[in-house]
TrEMBL record:
Named cofactor requirement(s): FAD
GO molecular function: flavin adenine dinucleotide binding; oxidoreductase activity, acting on the CH-CH group of donors
Protein name: Acyl-CoA dehydrogenase
UniProt keyword list: FAD, Flavoprotein, Oxidoreductase
Amino acid sequence: MGSPPAPAIPPPRQTLDGLAARFASRAAAHDQSGEIATENLDECRAAGLLGLTIARMDGGQGSGLRQVVDVVGRLATGDPTTALIMAMHFLQHMLVARDSRWPDTARRQVIETALRDGALINALRVEPELGTPARGGLPATRITRDAGRIMLNGRKIYSTGSTALRWGTVWAATDEVQPRVGQVLVDLHAPGIRIERSWRQMGMRATGSHTFVFENVELPESALVDLRLPEQWQSNDGALVTGHALAIAALYDGVAHAARDWLVSFLHARVPTALGRPLATLPRFHTLLGQIDALLMSNRSILDVALGRAESGDYPGTEANLAKYVMTENAIRAVELGVAAIGNPALSEDNPLERHFRNVLCARIHSPQGDVALAAAGRVALAATE
């Protein structure tokens, strides 16, 4: 037997803080334009972050969920749109690293292009009629066989990072009598693929989450990564559910921290004429910051417990989804408190708090959505008492 792989080496804190500071300086411009901050992604490449969750034996850093959550949360304090694109890349490579179903050819392609070219990957799952697969249903995106060729047709909306991606794991169904569903690996530079610029949301504007259209895209056999009968997907991959939930929670917690830090600087700088001293000296703002910090302290505690249990292998996906729900609601409330307390300046596009507020509200749209997380936890609780 060979030696076990060396432990993962997380990126230095000063590297992440430097990236976040530079991202923050560009965030307003990218929010206004709605364009992906490609210079941020280039800096992530230069810092070696694209190999964060690629296995050490494959040339990556071999980091786990704790490092992913830390990186995503820190980058999100600068620009959560960049952090989200990177989070999806990290999570996909965590799956590639441990999923034995992936054909070796496909696995090598995504790993080698990530390390050599800085190629990004994301899952493309949501459709206009289907919505998110998390709520069930067969995708309209179809895999067909025609004269020995494998063809892909369909469309995927809300495709985070669209124009910056090289690879997509596309959720699709076969046209067999008994359809199988699952992931196919698609080179997003292949013929027959186009992007409709459909992402015009209120928040998280620079994620470039546009629509991919696939028209007779020919796929190699190795692209059929993981196809199963629909009922075989009912038992979700617990580790993937946990990773997604906690990464999203950490991202929006990062937004709330950025909003909190801006609020502190504003309260110190704002000196009303009638008061003659900074707003930071008023007791009501002391109480306000105490409320905000209590919410964010709760998030830190929830996340620390969640990561500890996840690392021990004792953390059900239903609880991870609840953690995402509670943490993101805390983050939203923390930003709302600041907005309500300072009035018009909070909603001015001249101030970052307005952007943070729009961004943090997107937490409620991200899977798992609140009603799904709460209903699943309730079913588990009631089943335990039967």
